[in-house]
Amino acid sequence: MGPVGKCALFVALCATACRLPLPEIDPGACPEGYVHVPPATEVGVEAGFCVAKYEMKQGAGELPLAEAGGLPWVSLTQPAAVAACERLGPGYALISNPEWIALAREIERTDANWYSGRLNRGHSEKPEEALEAGGDDDPCHGLPASCDEATWHFTRRTHRLRSGAVVWDLAGNVHEWVDWWLTEDRAGPLGLQWQELNTSTPTEAMPAASFRSEDEALRKDDGIGAYWPHEEPQCGAATRGGAWDYGSLAGIYTLTFNMWPDSQKDFVGFRCVWRDGTR
After folding, report:
1. How confident is the model over 112-128, as a mean pLDDT?
2. Does position 8 have pLDDT exceeding 70, yes or no?
3. pLDDT value for 15
4. Which residues contact 230 (CB under 8 A, 6 or more apart)?
5. How high is the pLDDT of residue 228?
6. Whether the Cβ atoms of residue 271 and residue 35 lie closer than 8 Å to each other
7. How many whole angstroms separate alpha carbon 90 and alpha carbon 212?
């Protein structure tokens, strides 16, 4: 075997054998306003990370804030959302699609988010506008519905993780950019229509673990959300979660590819993560 062949063999072997373990984050070390999400190796998230508890708000110096007060920061492009998160410092980034799926599956696995076989889908009806968040003891804050931590409602805006941590507005309020732009080989059939996530056909570029719920028998009427694949390859910038007027199409798994990266919409915001600055 020549030098080139030996080098190729070494690279192939080292892709697995030489991989160093990713550093794990102490759940108590998350920055203020962030909550810990455990690893989900089945979707490609090898180590835990911290995710903003709220949709980001616009702070001084164009810094994104993870806090309840104020309306979500919207009308910025996907690259602008990436840059905004990175301005927070080392380890901060716009949430990736695998991280979104890891968070969604953590919510799916938590009994407190379910009632009679349905998952709550957040602020997805009236009022037809984005809302600020409230206290965790007021999970229907700003809505006509009434609920609390012990009283479920399908528009309840919060979800719990198995740790007991609370995340706001992952399913509704405004769409959220994720760091994913896929211009070809999207799950199909492609077209200008909503379809079920768990019956859409996976592809090599978009395997089932990148968009489906853990329980693949679930449908949008169970509260998980829906999928808009679009048919134009240029429109491939991904947003996840529903918006305030999505009704039964909203959910923690809702996925659309109907925007360009430079789209600016008043119903699209974003959420940052922190990966401890060493990865």
Report:
1. 96
2. no
3. 34
4. 186, 190, 191, 192, 236, 256, 257, 258
5. 96
6. no
7. 31
12 CB burial (10 A radius; 0-12, 13-18, 19+): exposed
Residues paired with residue 227 on neighbouring β-strands, in sequence order: 195, 255
Mean pLDDT of 27-42: 94
Residue entry with tokens 């947003």: 239
Structure tokens at 182: 């896929």
- Name the DSSP class of 148: B
235 pLDDT band, cuts 50/70/90, is confident
Q: Phi/psi class of residue 164: alpha, beta or left (left: φ > 0; alpha: ψ in -120 to 50)?
A: left
Beta carbons of 258 and 73 less than 8 angstroms apart: no
CA distance linking residue 111 with residue 102, whole number of Å = 16
**CA–CA dist 55, 156 (Å, integer):** 15
Q: In the numeric block, which tokens belong to residue 201?
A: 């056909």
Give the DSSP H or E segment for 58.
Answer: strand 57-58
Q: What would the pLDDT profile of 144-156 be if each residue is shown by its tens digit?
A: 999 998 999 999 9
In which region does residue 264 sit, left (phi positive, over 0), alpha (psi from -120 to 50) or beta (all else)?
beta
